[in-house]
């Protein structure tokens, strides 16, 4: 499903790589952004469940993120933050997987953005408690992709990229503080004179 970066860049402002980290299955999605329009470039999974050695899994994650970065030349990298779970060992392994994916992105000088699972679901469906199936259905409606992926981890990775697009689409939505002076300075066309 991948489209080489040099073909997809012709009329696009930026490319976003989104990753849903995992130690058994890592999901990814790549979108092209042109103005307010987005287009799916690639999505899929990296299956790691047959690799018993955890450091080898981490190495594969690093290499896969680097491969995706080399193929699509993303301008931004978005990743899902690990959620808090009861199993400390699982959380530790998931955190390592996230860290390795981030390191691969940083190694290629791609800016990194992190979103909570709840924020991603809220951004895509309007409901922070939405199911994976609901997220996948909304993405299917939004991006009109033909093939439904075998694993919902693929649409989870895509959801991270789309969430990042939505969060950065409107300057007011991404303001970290209520500094209205900075907002007015950065958005002169949005403020009417008196």
Which labels suit this protein?
single chain; 194 residues; alpha/beta; Nucleotidyltransferase, domain 5; 5-stranded mixed β-sheet; 8 helices; 5 strands; 47% helix; globular; disordered N terminus
Q: How is the secondary structure organized here?
A:
Elements: H1 5-8, E1 14-20, E2 25-34, E3 37-47, H2 54-72, E4 76-80, H3 88-107, E5 112-115, H4 117-125, H5 132-143, H6 152-167, H7 171-174, H8 180-186
Parallel strand pairs: 1-4, 4-5
Antiparallel strand pairs: 1-2, 2-3
Helix pairs in contact: 2-3, 4-6, 5-6
Going across the biggest sheet, name each strand in turn.
3-2-1-4-5
CATH architecture: 2-Layer Sandwich
CATH class: Alpha Beta
- The whole-number mean of residue pLDDT values reads 86
**C-alpha Rg, in Å?**
17 Å
Shape: globular
Descriptive overview:
There is one protein chain. The model is unreliable at 3-12 and 171-178 (pLDDT under 50). Helix 5 packs across helix 6 (152-167). This protein starts with a helix and ends in an 8-residue tail after the last helix. The protein has helices spanning 5-8, 54-72, 88-107, 117-125, 132-143, 152-167, 171-174, 180-186, and strands at 14-20, 25-34, 37-47, 76-80, 112-115. It has a single domain, classed as Ribonuclease H-like superfamily/Ribonuclease H (Nucleotidyltransferase, domain 5, 2-Layer Sandwich), CATH 3.30.420. A 5-stranded mixed β-sheet has the order 3-2-1-4-5. By secondary structure, it is an alpha/beta fold.
């Amino acid at each position: 499903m991948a489209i080489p970066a040099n073909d997809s860049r012709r009329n696009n402002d930026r490319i976003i790589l989104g990753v849903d980290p995992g130690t058994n299955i890592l999901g990814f999605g790549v979108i092209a952004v042109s103005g307010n329009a987005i287009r799916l470039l690639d999505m899929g999974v990296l299956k790691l469940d047959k690799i018993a050695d955890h450091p080898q899994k981490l190495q594969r994650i690093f290499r896969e993120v680097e491969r995706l970065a080399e193929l699509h030349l993303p301008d931004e990298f978005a990743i899902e933050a690990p959620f808090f779970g009861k199993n400390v060992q699982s959380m530790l392994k998931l955190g390592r997987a996230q860290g390795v994916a981030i390191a691969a992105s940083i190694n290629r000088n791609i800016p990194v953005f992190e979103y909570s699972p709840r924020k991603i679901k809220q951004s895509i469906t309007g409901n922070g408690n939405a199911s994976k199936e609901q997220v996948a259905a909304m993405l299917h409606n939004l991006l009109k992709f033909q093939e439904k992926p075998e694993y919902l981890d693929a649409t989870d990775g895509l959801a991270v990229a789309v969430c990042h697009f939505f969060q950065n689409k409107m300057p007011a939505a991404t303001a970290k503080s209520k500094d209205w002076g900075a907002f007015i300075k950065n958005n002169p066309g949005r403020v009417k004179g008196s």
